[in-house]
Design a protein that fits this description.
- By secondary structure, the chain is of the alpha+beta class.
- The protein is built from 11 helices and 14 strands.
- It has 2 domains: about 45 residues, Uridine Diphospho-n-acetylenolpyruvylglucosamine Reductase, domain 2 (2-Layer Sandwich), CATH 3.30.43.10; about 200 residues, Uridine Diphospho-n-acetylenolpyruvylglucosamine Reductase, domain 3 (2-Layer Sandwich).
- Helix content is about 35%, strand content about 25%.
- The strands form 4 sheets. A 5-stranded antiparallel β-sheet has the order 4-5-10-6-7.
- The longest helix has 18 residues.
């Protein structure tokens, strides 16, 4: 690990200011990705700005919106009675992230900002049509994820919370890597006020919506409606864990299970 300066932030704006004032500063949320890459000397930020004291954690429900602070841990979401009551699929998703150590340190904001191709939360953001609120603006979930480990966040922009609309019904099913628990393929299905949404993670370099499946489920919201729907293997991830063709197959299987699990 290279030498770096450690700073704490008292707010999102304070964090943005400290990162901007540094040479190559990085925000530190849970550190689940950043710290391992620093230990391997794959990253060498000049400064780490810790968000743990920036007042960005907590969960609130107002009307039909569940708001989750960016520094709220996966474990907190998983065990939240408010989340379990309003969006049980979101609580279940959080409970399946990593292991207890990861769930007690990793944060929703850090996961979304990192946009790992196999992360779970991006599927919930797209599947529920969530809104990402930063210290500067509100970003629609459909516009947030732009590529592998890439998002619409600009320099000096810090996620403060994520707003999820409560769906009519929703479910998330994933085929996990047995070691890391990352999604080899994960599918989030939701019937929302704006229509049916199907979001896929793990299969591609970036989370995406399966439009053909959405159309089929809009006409008939049942697992059987997906019999003739599929995603192309072209451009999907292929590695030692699963080929592109196998991932394409898993998308269909996980989507059917997700629909069947919707209550």
């Amino acid at each position: 690990m290279y030498n770096f300066n450690y700073q704490t932030a008292s707010s999102a704006d304070d964090a943005a200011a400290k990162v901007s004032a540094s040479d190559e500063g990085k925000l530190l949320a849970g550190g689940m990705t950043l710290l391992p890459t620093m230990k391997q000397r794959l990253a060498m930020p000049s400064d780490l700005v810790d968000l743990s004291k920036a007042g960005l954690s907590g969960i609130s429900v107002a009307g039909n919106v569940v708001s989750i602070g960016a520094m709220t841990t996966h474990d907190t979401v998983a065990n939240s009675k408010e989340v379990a009551s309003a969006i049980p699929a979101l609580a279940k998703l959080a409970s399946g992230i990593g292991d207890p150590a990861v769930r007690n340190r990793g944060t929703i904001g850090g996961s979304i900002a990192n946009n790992d191709p196999a992360a779970d939360y991006p599927a919930a953001v797209l599947g529920l049509g969530a809104t990402i609120v930063t210290n500067k603006r509100s970003i629609a979930g459909d516009d947030f994820f732009t590529g592998m480990f890439d998002t619409a966040l600009e320099d000096g922009e810090v996620i403060t919370r994520v707003d999820f609309q409560v769906p009519e019904t929703a479910s998330y099913i994933k085929f996990p890597n047995p070691a890391s628990r990352y999604a080899i393929v994960g599918v989030f299905v939701a019937k929302t006020a704006g229509g049916v949404r199907v979001a896929v993670t793990g299969a591609s370099p970036c989370v995406f919506r399966a439009s053909e499946m959405e159309a089929a489920l809009t006409a008939n919201f049942s697992a059987g409606a997906l019999e003739n729907s599929s995603v192309s293997a072209n451009g999907l991830n292929a590695d030692i864990h699963a080929s592109a063709e196998y991932r394409a197959h898993l998308v269909g299987v996980m989507a059917k299970r997700a629909v069947a699990a919707c209550s």
